[in-house]
UniProtKB/TrEMBL annotation:
PANTHER family per UniProt: DEHYDROGENASE_REDUCTASE SDR FAMILY MEMBER 6, DIHYDROANTICAPSIN 7-DEHYDROGENASE
InterPro entries: NAD(P)-bd_dom_sf (IPR036291), Sc_DH/Rdtase_CS (IPR020904), SDR_DHRS6-like (IPR051122), SDR_fam (IPR002347)
Protein known as: Short-chain dehydrogenase/reductase
Species, as recorded: Rhodopseudomonas palustris (strain HaA2)
Residues that span the membrane, as ranges: none
Alphabetic keyword roster: NAD, Oxidoreductase
Family in the record: Belongs to the short-chain dehydrogenases/reductases (SDR) family.
Entry keyword annotation includes Methyltransferase: no
A single GO molecular function term of this UniProt record: oxidoreductase activity
Length: 243
């Protein structure tokens, strides 16, 4: 329970799903966690999980990201979890849809990494963990046109950061989850109809969805010094979806 002892972590989209489970897992492993999200009620409910510091942050707002990084100071761990799943093909994706998805899923990480990397470099090291997806990186999922493109971009920016700062103590890895039971995933299932959840389960060879805690376990490993020899990798964790 002290795998992250002495480390300070900054987490985006920490109010729900994978970001939330990761923030809680980080605290349980001894890290000091600063949690952010646009959902203030969700953030407030993190206090009972032992997360003392939380603030509203829209990762689409460059000035707000720069300001909070100044306020928080240097961190050892940056977990970028914010992301949106656009449903549809190229024909369903307007220019505005494209721009929104890239802004929230990709440019958000550009913003937070630019803001927090200097502090990590001053400290002499740090671990950046970006939530990508199996869709787009390992597999083309139907109706995940712009989503897949954003997540492939996340894998590419992850490798670029890893390569550029490998000699300066910085590691940067991506996590590529398959279908994980989170509030937004259940919303997508419900939108697909009454059999929606079963449809998502049916495409899983394991016969079940993943849990946010299972993704958080990988995030802890990548955030910790246990993974010191690992950088620039898109780590798939998909319950055999791509087998
Ligand atoms: P979720 O989608 O249920 O919750 C996302 C959280 O992001 C919410 O708390 C929401 O308030 C917050 N958020 C939304 N817009 C924001 C913004 N502009 N600024 C800050 N926070 C914002 O959680 P999830 O399904 O765990 O998704 C988290 C990440 O995991 C996403 O990047 C998603 O693409 C990725 N992912 C999820 C799955 C899955 O099946 N659930 C699979 C692969 C990848």
């Amino acid at each position: 329970s002290d795998r992250l002892k002495g480390k300070r972590a900054f987490v985006t989209a920490a109010a729900a799903g994978i970001g939330r489970a990761s923030a809680i897992a980080f605290v349980r492993e001894g890290a000091e966690v600063f949690a952010t999200d646009i959902d203030e009620a969700g953030l407030a409910s993190l206090a009972k999980e032992g997360i003392g510091e939380a603030a509203k942050l829209d990762v689409r707002d460059s000035d707000a990201v720069a300001a909070i990084a100044k306020q928080v100071g240097a961190v050892d761990i940056l977990l970028n979890a914010a992301g949106f799943v656009h449903h549809g093909t190229v024909l369903d994706c307007s220019d505005a849809d494209w721009d929104f998805s890239f802004d929230l899923n990709v440019k958000s990480m550009h913003r937070t990494i630019r803001a927090f990397l200097p502090g990590m470099l001053e400290k002499g090291g740090g671990s950046i963990v970006n939530i990508s997806s199996a869709a787009g990186v390992f597999k083309a999922a139907p109706n995940r046109y712009v989503y897949g493109a954003t997540k492939a971009a996340v894998a590419a920016l992850t490798r670029a950061i890893a390569a550029d700062f490998i000699t300066r103590g910085i590691r940067c890895n991506a996590i590529c989850p398959g279908t994980i039971e989170t509030p937004s995933m259940l919303g997508r299932a419900a939108a697909a109809g009454p059999q929606g959840r079963e449809m998502f389960v049916a495409r899983q060879p394991m016969g079940r969805l993943g849990t946010a805690e299972e993704i958080a376990a990988l995030a802890v490993y990548l955030a910790s010094d246990e993974s010191a020899f690992t950088t620039g990798v898109a780590h798939i964790i998909d319950g055999g979806w791509t087998l």
